[in-house]
């Protein structure tokens, strides 16, 4: 933060320091990348620690360091993602179960309504009807129940 307020700074010598490139240095390394300040000893200003970044010039370590520090999931993050995934899965299972139950209930109600309609219609038929007349009346009953656009003549 101290260097970023020096607006007239043109040259910055960084060598000779044991740079520990950890997460506290992220803002500084990003600042080195985006400014127009000259770094004459940029090759000699390198990270001494951690071992993954040892030997990297400070002017080039900004993006890898940002990746290591800012884009990192911890155990709690994985647990949270697992819980969210499980809840979405469970909600899908419950929604499918409810949909299936509604379909079964609708089918049961439809069958009971159909059976009641057939029983009422059959009780209204003449007992003396012959089988051909009976099949014609059942055809009419079927058309009444499910709808028909045809005209029937008796």
The chain-level mean pLDDT equals 77
Could you state the order of secondary-structure elements as H and E? Answer: EHEHHH
**Strand percent estimate:** under 5%
Number of strands: 2
Low-confidence stretches: none
- In spatial order, strands of the major sheet run 1-2
Main sheet, how many strands, which sense, barrel? Answer: 2 strands, parallel
Helix content percent band: 40-55%
Gross geometry = rod-shaped
In terms of structural class, how would the helical and strand content be classed? Answer: mainly alpha
Radius of gyration equals 41 Å
- Give the helix tally: 4
Cα-to-Cα separation, first versus last residue: 98 Å
What's a quick, concise take on this entry?
The chain has 154 residues and is mainly alpha-helical. 54% of the residues lie in helices and 3% in strands.
Could you explain how this protein is built, in words?
- The chain has helices spanning 26-34, 62-70, 75-123, 131-146; strands spanning 19-20, 47-49.
- It is mainly α.
- The model has no long low-confidence stretch (mean pLDDT 77).
């Amino acid at each position: 933060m101290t260097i970023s307020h020096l607006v007239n700074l043109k040259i910055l010598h960084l060598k000779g320091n044991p740079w520990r490139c950890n997460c506290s240095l992220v803002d500084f390394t990003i600042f080195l990348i985006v400014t127009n300040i000259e770094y004459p000893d940029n090759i000699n200003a390198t990270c001494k620690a951690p071992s993954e970044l040892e030997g990297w010039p400070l002017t080039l370590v900004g993006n890898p360091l940002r990746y290591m520090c800012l884009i990192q999931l911890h155990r709690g993050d994985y647990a949270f993602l697992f819980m969210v995934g499980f809840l979405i899965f469970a909600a899908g299972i419950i929604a499918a179960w409810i949909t299936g139950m509604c379909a079964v209930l609708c089918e049961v109600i439809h069958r009971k309504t159909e059976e009641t309609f057939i029983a009422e219609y059959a009780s209204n038929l003449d007992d003396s009807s012959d089988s051909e007349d009976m099949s014609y009346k059942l055809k009419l009953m079927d058309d009444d129940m499910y709808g028909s656009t045809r005209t029937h003549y008796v």
